[in-house]
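A student in our group prepared the protein record below, which I am reviewing. Thanks in advance; the entry in question is below.
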Amino acid sequence: YLPGIAEGSVRLQAFGVTEPTSGTDTTALRTTAKREGDQYIVNGQKIWTSRAEHSDLMVLLCRTSPKAEAAKKTAGLSVLLVDMREVKGKSLTIQPIRTMMNHSTTEVFFDNMEVPAQSLIGEEGKGFSYLLHSLNPERILIAAEAVGLGLDALRRATQYAKDRVVFERPIGMNQSIQHPLAAGWAQLEAARMMICKAAALYDAGAPCGVEANAAKYLAAESAQDMCRQSMATHGGMGYAREYHVERLFREVMIPYLAPVSQQLALCFIAERSLGLPKSY
């Protein structure tokens, strides 16, 4: 698979983790993979599985042993690499989810889907530990996306403030316009510095969970504030698609809500950085 993925002839873009009933409580997922001979039989459902319609492969997290039999709640989960080209429209059903943003996400259903046992990634029952390896870089990536959205919103607001003339002067001369944009720039730059720190730690193989969560939190907060301020700077024109900021205002909710809520990011920081007792 790897050479095809690298050259772009095989698309690995789908990650099946979240379920309607479990949300961020990943250990409560219900999708099962039962070993029968040289294959797994998968049954269950995932939601917010992005780009499933456009992907050839899916990394799928599922339960291979009952939660009640596991030594701890994080045990009994496994990761499978599913070749969706062989099962789409048969034992795998993909249902697009219409959203307010330009994001191709879906709900997927597995109905006795057969997956070769050799498609098991790593060891059976250790899937949750493998999942953890993806969480920090995912947070760093989403944080960078958020800062990009915020900087685009800032650029558009700044240009509009220079061009828009009211009472015979550009609105950018008014401090009530200047100050929020300047503060937004400072906040976005601070978030970007935290992203760089988290990324440097990750690249060095050092612990970076606190920094990755802090980067995601700061970037999402500053980007949402900036997109809202860009809408306010544009006034009524902010609603017009012509100026593009209404789309940024919608898109910025993705990094604000995913891949983890702002509240859970703070819970992680409170526990790991401040030494406070675990709250969930």
